[in-house]
């Protein structure tokens, strides 16, 4: 009996590795190998375009500590992530719950909130440069008609990053909404019906039934959303190039600048590795705090 | 007396009717304005794509174009071989999607339903792909592809994206939601793991698969920097590169044509989404989870 | 004979587009052993001012290939100037550079640092290049008296102004000095209470460091040498202080973006704009008012720095390829082609003889604004040709932004940026020396 059990376990193990193998082959070539190389690069002076490489030891990492811009960029990245992600996920959750019904017109709403995801970032960035124009942009026109003061948005180092945050919420709420909507489809509807018949309020149902039931996806969205904030690169690249006064420079853009514009692959690699350690720490924290609260229907 | 009661009754009935109506449709009161707000940039894209260059910034000209200037569309298409680009975009995104669907389904099942040593470590390794900034791996991947002889081929835009830590994570979460009674029952019926995966799990997580599919297609459909770096020939390039031609760096943008180009690039996606979001609804109605 | 024939079918196959992806997926099919007679060249170029440039360049390349037996040029669109430079450098890193490319002239020292450029001084001297090219343009590809490229699509910043706005205020001519600029900008600014309706002046953001170098030159300073920047000199500090004065007076936008500032001008939100001559065609054709073009106002003298780029030839390739590459670069910059290119794009023709062509004279009659830019070229020089120029540009932009936002004083900002950038240049140079 225990022999058969051991064999079953070994078979399960072999099956698992076989199932992971296709992914691992590609990951090894296109993810792990570059990451290993970047660790190695970060210890060297590597110039893009030049095959010669010089040993530096920890110099790139020491430079990072003294780099005024690095700390500013880190702050900007934290600001962007801590505003965009909670706001767009909250918006997405409300939208998903609202749109998870058979009401007429839901298809139109879903498309209306999702289409920004499809707009190529070049075009979306340019579009919002226009929307934010201080003189004639529709956003300032709207502010005026509401009796609010006009802002210089992308021209103002205090407002440029919040402007990109607002745009990101427009662009990504639909994205998270779609994922959450898919999760809601997996929730057994009899639970709702029972709660509704018991006279449980809508707010109560959301907090005590819906959210716990889709917690695995919510957990996924929070982690992926945090990493998704890397996407801001596209908008910084198209709209502001990090300016004015470095107010919109974020880590992914700074890595690109150093690696490709300044050809400083060594330093860019050090930055990327620092970011990786930072993100691993953050994800670890999320996994320990939120991950424990996640409830999976398939597991007892 | 009875008249009054009658009147009262009918008012209250009418009020009840209104309340019922409102309760059924109050959502529209919130959603409609919000949706309009969300849609307004799209309206601007479409309207601008029909304007002349002078009209775009002429504040005296008003919001709507004076005449519908459809010539921006053919003139956009003449900038680059958009037909070839479209075919290539379809090949690239569909190949990536097919590859990803296979790799993530297998891997997610292992992570969700099997026990094996090193599971947590391996899962973290999968997530590394999402955590590491893509610009830090561009150079090495370029070199690797060159050594494989793949630079300036369609495959160069496909192979780096076949594995997806993102998709694996997303699908694993859904697989873990599938009630274990279902897989236990299938196992008692003599199904092996792959059969259970195919007959029980995949049908149940269809909404997730579709959601991931949409996201994957949108992401790679719009990818610009990587295709620009690894391709040279017009014959193998994709749509965003054509769009890049219109978002000129040196002078101000060519707004009408940029917006026409955007419409051209987005339309196939939008169409796909409208079709699939119906399937999205249908898929759960047929699976019988609910 | 046979090889020509198979060549044709292959090209037809490529042209059909549909088949191309499948063909190119099989590496062996596209690169068979070739007969020696045809030299294949790759040419990487950016598209800066209009998507149509892509069509124009493709057309020129077809013409060239049709008229030159034994040379086949493949034109590769490589994105913006930045993208182009990155694509070329990445290819250099794996030892397979394209035969020619068209980068921004500021990248000269970067490519020289990589030992990537063919010295074409001798060919140019035995040709008419030194006689016929406009000096200001030719010089953008010169380092230590050696020539490393043929100027192809030069541009400079110029002052664009809204003639209708000027007319409404009875201002007859564009400002010619910094003081006049300040006065004019103040006069053109419109405020409704606290709300700004129109800036007097906007300096195109994202490239404002380029304009700033023009201000330094107008104040008698070339703010860099081959291995250092000189932004901490009094002339530069005075220039930035002048900007700050205009911002404080509320007549100049403290910051903008490149695309945004062009929009602002077309929409009438700013009456004057510093932007590239490359934008002339777009601004002229898209503005609902008459656009004026003038020299950038002077302080001690006229001055501007050159944008745009030269065609450069790779050093690490066979002599046959180098020769073919020279033939191609020479052809792209010949009198007729430069005249045609200039008319089609709004870039400035690099040859004196091009400007004397009847079509060019006619173009100037139709678009007199184009001449202003050409004339300003004689007062202009290369733009920030130092190693690590990209980092230098970003540091300067940041210093200017922070000054105009009131975070730091002009002198402190420029002194810091100069120290930072010079440290960086030293680091790069030390590396090059090994």
Automatic annotation (TrEMBL), chain A:
Taxonomy, superkingdom: Bacteria
Mode of membrane association: Multi-pass membrane protein
UniProt keyword annotations, A-Z: Cell membrane, Membrane, Transmembrane, Transmembrane helix, Transport
Segments forming domain ABC transmembrane type-1: 74-288
TM region positions: 14-35, 78-100, 112-133, 159-184, 205-230, 265-290
Major subcellular site: membrane
Keyword Transport: yes
GO cellular component: plasma membrane
Pfam family for this entry, one: BPD_transp_1
Recorded family membership: Belongs to the binding-protein-dependent transport system permease family.
Name of the protein in question: Sugar ABC transporter permease
Native source organism of the sequence: Antarcticimicrobium sediminis
Lineage: Bacteria, Pseudomonadati, Pseudomonadota, Alphaproteobacteria, Rhodobacterales
Automatic annotation (TrEMBL), chain B:
Pfam families hit by this protein: BPD_transp_1
Lineage: Bacteria, Pseudomonadati, Pseudomonadota, Alphaproteobacteria, Rhodobacterales
Protein topology in the membrane: Multi-pass membrane protein
TM segment ranges: 24-47, 85-109, 121-143, 149-169, 196-218, 258-276
GO cellular component, one term: plasma membrane
InterPro entries hit by this protein: MetI-like, MetI-like_sf
Protein family per UniProt: Belongs to the binding-protein-dependent transport system permease family.
Domain named ABC transmembrane type-1: residues: 86-276
Major place of residence: membrane
Gene3D superfamilies linked: MetI-like
Keyword terms of this UniProt record: Cell membrane, Membrane, Transmembrane, Transmembrane helix, Transport
GO biological process, one term: transmembrane transport
Name of the protein this chain belongs to: Carbohydrate ABC transporter permease
PROSITE patterns: ABC_TM1
Location of this chain's protein in the cell: Cell membrane
TrEMBL record, chain C:
Matches recorded under InterPro entries: Bact_solute-bd_prot1, SBP, TAT_signal
Annotated Gene Ontology cellular component terms: periplasmic space
Classification via PROSITE patterns: TAT (PS51318)
Any matching Pfam family: SBP_bac_8
Cited CDD domains: PBP2_UgpB (cd14748)
SUPFAM superfamilies registered for this protein in UniProt: Periplasmic binding protein-like II
PANTHER family cross-referenced by the UniProt entry: ARABINOSE-BINDING PROTEIN-RELATED, DIACETYLCHITOBIOSE BINDING PROTEIN DASA
Protein family (similarity comment): Belongs to the bacterial solute-binding protein 1 family.
Protein's recorded name: ABC transporter substrate-binding protein
């Amino acid at each position: 009996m225990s022999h058969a059990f051991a064999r079953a376990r070994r078979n399960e193990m072999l099956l698992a590795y076989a199932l992971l193998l296709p992914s691992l082959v590609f990951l090894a070539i296109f993810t792990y190998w570059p990451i290993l190389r970047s660790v190695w690069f970060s210890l060297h002076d590597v110039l893009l375009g030049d095959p010669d490489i010089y040993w530096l030891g920890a110099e790139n990492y020491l430079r990072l500590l003294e780099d005024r811009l690095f700390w500013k960029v880190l702050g900007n990245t934290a600001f962007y992530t801590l505003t965009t992600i909670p706001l767009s996920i909250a918006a997405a959750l409300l939208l998903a719950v609202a749109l998870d019904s058979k009401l007429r017109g839901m298809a139109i709403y879903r498309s209306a909130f999702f289409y920004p995801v499809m707009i190529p970032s070049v075009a979306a960035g340019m579009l919002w440069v226009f929307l934010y124009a201080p003189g004639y942009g529709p956003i300032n026109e709207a502010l005026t008609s509401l009796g609010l003061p006009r802002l210089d948005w992308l021209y103002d180092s205090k407002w440029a990053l919040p402007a990109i945050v607002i745009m990101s919420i427009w662009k990504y709420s639909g994205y998270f909404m779609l994922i959450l909507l898919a999760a809601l489809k997996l929730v057994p509807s009899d639970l709702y019906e029972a709660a509704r018949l018991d006279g449980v309020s809508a707010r109560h149902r959301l907090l005590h039934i819906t959210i716990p039931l889709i917690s695995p996806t919510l957990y996924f969205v929070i982690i992926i959303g945090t990493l998704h904030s890397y996407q801001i690169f596209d908008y910084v690249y198209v709209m502001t190039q990090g300016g004015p006064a470095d107010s919109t420079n974020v880590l992914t853009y700074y890595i690109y600048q150093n690696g490709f514009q300044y050809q400083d692959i060594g330093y860019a690699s050090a930055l990327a590795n620092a970011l990786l350690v930072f993100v691993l720490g953050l994800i670890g924290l999320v996994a320990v705090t939120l991950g424990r609260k996640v409830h999976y229907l398939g597991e007892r | 007396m009875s008249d009054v009661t009658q009147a009262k009754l009918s008012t209250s009935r009418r009020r009840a009717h209104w309340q019922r109506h409102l309760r059924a449709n109050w959502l529209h009161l919130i959603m409609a304005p919000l949706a309009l707000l969300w849609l307004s940039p799209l309206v601007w894209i479409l309207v601008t794509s029909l304007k002349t260059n002078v009209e775009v910034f002429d504040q005296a000209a008003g919001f709507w174009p004076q005449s519908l200037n459809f010539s921006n569309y053919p003139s956009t298409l003449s900038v680059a071989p958009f037909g070839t680009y479209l075919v290539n975009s379809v090949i690239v995104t569909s190949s990536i999607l097919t590859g990803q669907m296979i790799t993530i389904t297998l891997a997610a099942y292992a992570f969700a339903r099997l026990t094996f040593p090193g599971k947590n470590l391996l899962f973290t390794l999968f997530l590394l792909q999402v955590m590491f900034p893509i610009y830090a791996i561009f150079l090495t991947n370029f070199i690797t592809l060159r050594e494989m002889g793949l630079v300036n081929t369609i495959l160069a835009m496909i192979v780096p994206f076949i594995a997806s830590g993102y998709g694996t994570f997303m699908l694993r979460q859904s697989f873990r939601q599938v009630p274990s009674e279902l897989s236990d029952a299938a196992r008692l019926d003599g199904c092996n793991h792959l059969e259970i995966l195919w007959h029980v799990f995949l049908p149940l997580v269809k909404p997730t698969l579709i959601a991931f599919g949409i996201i994957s297609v949108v992401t790679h459909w719009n990818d610009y920097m990587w295709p620009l770096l690894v391709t040279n020939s017009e014959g193998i390039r994709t749509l965003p590169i054509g769009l890049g031609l219109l978002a000129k760096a040196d002078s101000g943008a060519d707004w009408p044509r940029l917006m026409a180009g955007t419409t051209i690039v987005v339309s196939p996606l939008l169409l796909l989404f409208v079709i699939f979001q119906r399937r999205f609804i249908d898929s759960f109605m047929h699976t019988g989870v609910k | 004979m046979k090889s020509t024939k198979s060549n044709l079918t292959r090209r037809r196959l490529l042209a059909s587009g549909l088949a191309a992806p499948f063909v190119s997926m099989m590496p062996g099919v596209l690169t068979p052993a070739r007969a020696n007679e045809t030299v294949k060249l790759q040419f990487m170029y950016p598209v800066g001012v209009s998507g149509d440039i892509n069509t124009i360049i493709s057309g020129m390349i077809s013409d060239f290939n049709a008229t030159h037996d034994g040379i086949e040029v493949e034109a590769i669109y490589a994105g913006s100037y930045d993208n182009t430079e990155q694509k070329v450098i990445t290819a250099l890193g794996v030892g397979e550079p394209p035969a020619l490319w068209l980068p921004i002239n500021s990248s000269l020292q970067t490519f020289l640092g990589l030992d990537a450029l063919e010295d074409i001084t001798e060919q140019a001297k035995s040709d008419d290049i030194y006689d016929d090219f406009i000096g200001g343009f030719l010089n953008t590809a010169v380092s230590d008296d050696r020539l490393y490229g043929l100027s192809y699509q030069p541009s400079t910043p110029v002052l664009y102004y809204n003639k209708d706005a000027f007319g409404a205020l009875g201002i007859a001519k564009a400002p010619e000095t910094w003081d006049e600029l300040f006065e004019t900008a103040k006069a053109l600014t419109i405020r409704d209470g606290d709300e700004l309706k129109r800036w007097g002046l906007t300096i195109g953001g994202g490239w404002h460091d380029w304009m700033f170098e023009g201000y330094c030159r107008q104040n008698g300073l070339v703010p860099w040498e081959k291995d250092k920047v000189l932004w901490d000199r009094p002339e530069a500090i005075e220039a930035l202080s002048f900007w700050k004065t205009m911002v404080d007076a509320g007549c100049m936008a403290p910051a903008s973006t490149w695309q945004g500032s062009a929009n602002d001008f077309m929409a009438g939100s700013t009456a004057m704009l510093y932007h590239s001559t490359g934008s002339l065609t777009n601004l002229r054709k898209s503005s609902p008012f008459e656009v004026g073009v003038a020299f950038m106002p002077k302080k001690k003298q006229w001055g501007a720095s050159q944008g745009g780029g030269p065609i450069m030839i790779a050093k690490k390739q066979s002599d046959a390829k180098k020769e073919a590459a020279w033939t191609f670069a020479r052809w792209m910059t010949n009198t007729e082609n430069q005249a045609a290119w200039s008319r089609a794009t709004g870039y400035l023709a690099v040859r004196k003889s091009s400007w004397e062509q009847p079509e060019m004279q006619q173009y100037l009659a139709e678009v007199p604004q184009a001449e202003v830019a050409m004339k300003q070229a004689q007062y202009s020089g290369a733009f920030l040709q130092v190693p690590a120029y990209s980092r230098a540009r970003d540091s300067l932009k940041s210093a200017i932004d922070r000054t105009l936002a009131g975070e730091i004083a002009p002198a402190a900002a420029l002194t810091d940026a100069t120290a930072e950038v010079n440290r960086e240049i030293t680091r790069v140079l030390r590396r090059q020396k090994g």
